[in-house]
Each structure stands twice: as C-alpha cells, then as structure tokens.
Design brief:
The complex is a heterodimer of chains A (331) and B (280).
Chain A: E1 5-14, E2 22-32, E3 37-41, H1 48-55, E4 63-72, E5 75-76, H2 82-90, E6 93-96, H3 100-103, H4 110-120, H5 130-143, H6 160-172, E7 178-182, H7 190-207, E8 210-215, H8 218-224, E9 227-232, E10 235-241, H9 242-247, H10 252-259, H11 299-303, E11 309-311, E12 314-316, H12 319-330
Parallel strand pairs in A: 3-8, 3-9, 6-7, 7-8
Antiparallel strand pairs in A: 1-2, 1-4, 4-5, 9-10, 10-12, 11-12
Helix pairs in contact in A: 4-5, 5-6, 6-7
Chain B: E1 14-24, E2 30-41, E3 46-50, H1 57-64, E4 72-77, E5 80-81, H2 87-96, E6 97-100, H3 114-126, H4 130-143, H5 149-153, H6 162-174, E7 180-184, H7 192-209, E8 212-217, H8 220-226, E9 229-234, E10 237-243, H9 244-249, H10 254-262
Parallel strand pairs in B: 3-8, 3-9, 6-7, 7-8
Antiparallel strand pairs in B: 1-2, 1-4, 4-5, 9-10
Helix pairs in contact in B: 3-4, 4-6, 6-7
Classes of the chains: A alpha/beta (331), B alpha/beta (280).
Chain lengths: 331, 280
C-alpha cells in the first residue's frame, strides 16, 4: 500500500525583505504510512516546524516552498493552490498549532469557532443548523475530555491545557486523515502535558488518523510515537523506530540529544547539553552540518554531506557510523 | 565601585513563616493561592520549589521578591521584613533579591541593547559611573558565558537565541550583586539541549558567589541537578519536603509521585535503563 503522505525533495527557504536568505529545509524526503504516528525532533531553528507547515501547505511569506513534491493520498498537493488546495485540505489534513492560547480567536466563543470551521468547509447537504453543529461540538469536546460547558466559553476563560485540548478538538472537526501537531504541549506543565499527550495517543488509536508530532523534546516524542525522525540544520539525520532509537541511536546528534536526559535512577544527576551551536543556514554547510559539534568527525565529514544510509533498524546520515557498521558486517 | 562581588560576605537567611495569600476571584469567591507555608533558605543554600501550574509557586515567588504582600504571615531576609516593606526598604530588598524570569522573550526590553539593560541595575544600585558600569557589564557577560563580551553588549534581544537571552536575564539578576536569586522556571521555555547549560551556570554562580538560590520548577529531575533541598507545593500547601535526592527516590506523597512520573524522560519509562550505545 502506498504511504498516505510521501514528500520528496522538500526545499523551503525564508527570503526576508532585509537580511540573507535562509534555507530552512534542505532536500527532505519523508513518508508516513496510513495509521502511523511519527515524531519529528530537533533543536530550535532546525526546520522541524517549517517542514510541518510545508507538508500541510501552511507556509506563508517570507517562507516559500521552493521545490519537491508532496503526495497526499495520491495527489501532489505541492502544486495545488486556491480552491483546489482547499478541497484537498477538506479532504484530509490538519495542523494543530503550538500553544493553543494563540491559535484560538480570543473574541469568539468555542461554539462559534467550531461553527466557523464547519460552515467554511461545509459540503452540499451538510447539516449546518445550530443544533447539529452544537451536537458535533459537544461530541468533539467529549473526545478531548472536556465538559460540554466549554462550548459557551471564550478562550481566556480556559486554562492552557484546556485551550490546547480545544485546539485539538477543532483540528478533529473535519475528520482529517493526517494531523500534524506542532509542539502541542510545550507551554504546559509536566502533569498537564502528560494528560494532553495521553489524549492525543488515545484519539489516534481510536480514530485511526495518521499523526505527525513535532517537538524539541525527545522524551515527549519517544513517549508518544512509533517512529522518530531527527532533524538537524534543515535535514533529517536519523529515522528509526522509537523503541530502537532509545536503545541504540546511530547519529552522534541523536546520541547528544539523548544525553541531555539524566537517568533518574542514577546516583548523580549530571547536567549535559550539546556544546556549540547549530550552523547558520544562510550559508549552506559544505560537509556534514553537525561536523563542527561532532565528537566523531573525520576528514570526509568536512567535505561531503552524508546522505541517509541504512543503519540499525532504520536510517542515519553519518559517514563514520556507516563505515563502522560495514566493517563489523565484513568481519 | 563597591567591594569585589566574589569576596565572601554575609548573605542573610530567608525565613518564610506561616505565609498565606488569598485572592478575591470571580463571583467574590476567595481563592487561597498560598496556604500557611513556612520554610527557610540558609545563607548560600539552594532550595527548589516544585509544583504544577496553579500550585501557588509563582505567587510565593512574588511574595518573596516583594512584588506582592502576603495576606498573613511574615517573610524576612536578614533585617528586612519583606512582608511589610515601604519604599526605602523595597529598594534595599531589590538590591538583595533578584529574579530570573521564565520567559526570556518577554523579560528583556526589545528596544534596548544588552549593554543598556545590564548597565541600569549597576548604576541604580551600585552607584557606578557609566565607565565603571560598562566595565562591569563586560565582566558580567563573560561570567554568564556570553563571550566576546564586547560583541554581545552591542546586540538587541532579537539578535540573540533563547538560551543567550536567558543568560542576559541571569546577568541582569547578578548585576547588583544580590544575596538571593529567585529563578522562576528559568529553563522551561528553552530547548532541552540548552537547559543543562543554563542550569549549570546557575549552580556554578551560586557556588562561586556564595548566594542563595530559590529554584522554582515543575520538573523535579532538574531540581535534583542543582539544589539540595526540595519543597513540593500542591494547592498552595507544602505537601512534601526533604533532601532532593531522597524525595526523588522515595517520594511519599501521591502528588510528588505524579510529578516525577510526568517528566518526559526517556529513561524514566518502565523497562528502560541507561542509554545503550551503538558503537560496535
């Protein structure tokens, strides 16, 4: 069966009115099978949100999709615009924005915001009478474990966790087959975060939509997803099943990300970060973008950007690890 | 210029005793944000205050920094009675107790350079001339790892990353050489990869300068990394307290257990242990 979403050679650049052009997503391939729940993880500025916006066609200037195809359910949505893009969107994909507080309209009640979506995308014959819309709104609120009374509230009357749940309910309204969650729990405290993630996972299992979860927190992504893609400087540098990634990362950057978490059972909690800073993407790196921060770097890493190569149970883009694996297979 | 900031000096203890704070909410219902809380921070000690949103931890921070007054109870920092300060005393308190805020994007005036932001407290509280203040600003920037200082001094907040901004906020808190730093969720808005750097910096500065630290967080694991003692706050009350490592390993209160389990740590999941390595 072909994947629900197949993106090939995605390139996105920001061209601000002033300042240099920044290549935020550099030639990324990405496939997500129907029913799969994948994560995209990386530091601020690695291009993960930009990629999420690109595959849902939500990029706005100064960001621009400069190349690549995005096949969603057999149709290349990268070349669509206007009404045809809208029809495809109605047909199946949604984006849940970072911090639900900013994604909701502050001057409309939750009921009105449900109605706006349902009416804007109504098909001929759809029931858009108030009673029907309310029924649907209540059902969606229940799905994200909120009381029906929330329907009458304004966003400012709700807590951060409740607003994020409303944002998720709104994304579910048109029963999309693919939902991209962009940092859905970043502004929430740990207990609320855990509850919201649990809700997302339950919804995904019961409703069977395909999910993409974007976060800077590898702990969050590993706890929720089947497969993780690690992004660095606009590229995917590792792609592994979540369980395999935890026990054996292959890219040195993934290792460094994992190292940021202390073992809570350990005697001493040691604080570790990743030394150095990500490269400036206004100048394309000549070799591997991680090379300046990499403990394994060799000569080849400085001149040749490694492609994703089969490593372990997935893929990683690392010259050194690929060679070591080959050597161990040969011996 | 005043004495060398690194020189040993007397930092007084912070004593919070029987403090409550109630707010009159909607429909005249009263909300008890902080409920009969007592604790002390010994000179040079580091204490964590841990709780989820709404536990009252930020209210407590505002009471300790003198931005609000408790409904009942007293807070003292040496001879300063924080809970009853008037203008002159408040000025002395601000010199002694400084805050590192959660949001490095909101805590800096976007129109001022880093140098200007850091010069203000040095001039206001230490009475330095602008030439002296400039020198001190450059020292501060080096101290928080923003080097070369000259280059960072000239930048505006938008030219800095989140981690760099938070270092500027820390430098500003240290600028007037305070005795107590209250760090209210200083890393929750930063990338995981940057958190360790900022937390280590706080821990190191506390040791080197002999200042007291109150670290406020919802992440109990990070509390263990930089403080010796922890207070767990739930619905405005302290529900558990003790040595941080002890509380983490043998939590007694259900709420503490929930807080620990909710931390998205990949190694905290059942059946996983320390990182495996793929190195053949």
């Amino acid at each position: 069966m072909p994947p629900l979403l197949a993106a090939r050679g995605i390139r996105v650049a920001y061209t601000p009115a002033q300042g240099p052009r920044i290549e935020a997503v550099r030639n990324v391939d990405l496939e997500v099978a129907a029913g799969e729940f994948v994560g995209i993880v990386g530091e601020s500025g690695c291009g993960k949100s930009t990629l999420g916006y690109a595959i849902t066609r939500m990029l706005r200037p100064p960001a621009r999709l400069e190349g690549g195809s995005i096949t969603f359910d057999g149709t290349d949505i990268a070349v669509l615009d206007g009404e045809r893009l809208r029809r495809q969107r109605r047909n199946g994909f949604a984006l849940v924005l970072q911090s639900g507080m900013n994604a909701l309209n502050p001057v409309r009640t939750i009921r009105q915001q449900f109605a706006d979506i349902m009416k804007a995308h109504a098909r001929p014959g759809d029931d858009v009478a108030a009673a029907g819309l309310d029924r649907r709104g209540l059902e969606l609120l229940e799905a994200v474990r909120l009381e029906g009374a929330v329907l009458r509230r304004f966003p400012h009357e709700l807590s951060g966790g409740m607003r994020q749940r409303v944002a998720i309910a709104l994304a579910l309204a048109l029963e999309p087959r693919l939902i991209v969650f962009d940092e859905p729990t970043t502004a929430l405290d740990v207990i609320v975060q855990q509850a919201v993630l649990q809700t997302i996972r339950d919804l995904q299992r019961h409703r069977g939509f395909t999910g993409v979860l974007i976060s800077h927190d590898l702990g969050v992504v590993l706890s929720a997803t089947d497969r993780v893609m690690v992004m660095y400087a606009g590229r995917i540098v590792e792609d592994q099943p979540s369980a395999a990634l935890l026990s054996g990362p292959h890219h040195p950057y993934t290792e460094a990300l994992l190292d940021c978490y202390a073992d809570p059972a350990g005697d001493v909690i040691e604080l570790r970060g990743i030394p150095g800073t990500p490269p400036d993407l206004s100048r394309a790196p000549s070799g591997c973008a991680f090379e300046p921060r990499c403990p394994l770097a060799e000569d080849i890493c400085r001149v040749q950007d490694p492609p994703l190569m089969p490593l372990g149970s997935g893929q990683a883009a690392c010259h050194v690890r690929a060679r070591l694996q080959e050597a161990s297979h040969a011996s | 210029m005043p004495a060398d900031p690194a020189a040993p000096r007397g930092v007084p203890p912070l004593v919070v005793s029987g403090v409550s704070k109630t707010y009159r909410g909607q429909d005249r219902k009263t909300v008890v944000a902080v409920d009969d809380v007592s604790f002390a921070i010994a000179p040079g000690a580091a204490v964590s205050l841990v709780g989820a949103s709404g536990s009252g931890k930020s209210t407590l921070a505002r009471l300790i920094t003198g931005s609000e007054r408790p409904t009942s109870g007293t807070i003292t920092f040496g001879d300063l009675i924080v809970s009853r300060l008037r203008a002159a005393g408040q000025r002395r308190l601000y010199r002694q107790v400084q805050t590192v805020f959660q949001d490095p994007y909101g805590a800096l005036n976007p129109l001022h350079t880093v140098e200007y932001t850091l010069m203000r407290p040095v001039q206001n509280f230490l009475g330095a001339t602008s030439a002296q203040a400039r020198g001190r600003v450059h020292e501060l920037l080096e101290t928080v790892g923003l080097s070369p200082a000259r280059q960072f001094a000239a930048k505006l907040p938008h030219q800095l990353s989140g981690g760099q901004r938070q270092r500027v906020v820390i430098a500003r808190a240290l600028a007037c050489d305070p005795g107590l730093v209250v760090a209210d969720e200083p890393v929750s808005m930063l990338d995981v990869s940057l958190r360790a750097g900022v937390l280590s910096l706080l821990a190191e500065l506390r040791r080197e300068r002999g200042l007291s630290l109150l670290y406020i967080t919802h992440d109990l694991l990070s509390a263990r990394a930089i403080t010796d003692e922890v207070l767990v706050l739930h619905h405005g009350r302290i529900v558990e307290r003790g040595a941080t490592s002890q509380v983490l390993r043998h939590p007694q209160h259900d709420y503490t257990i929930r807080l620990i389990e909710a931390v998205p740590n990949p190694y905290a999941r059942p059946g996983t242990t320390s990182p495996g390595r793929s190195t053949p």
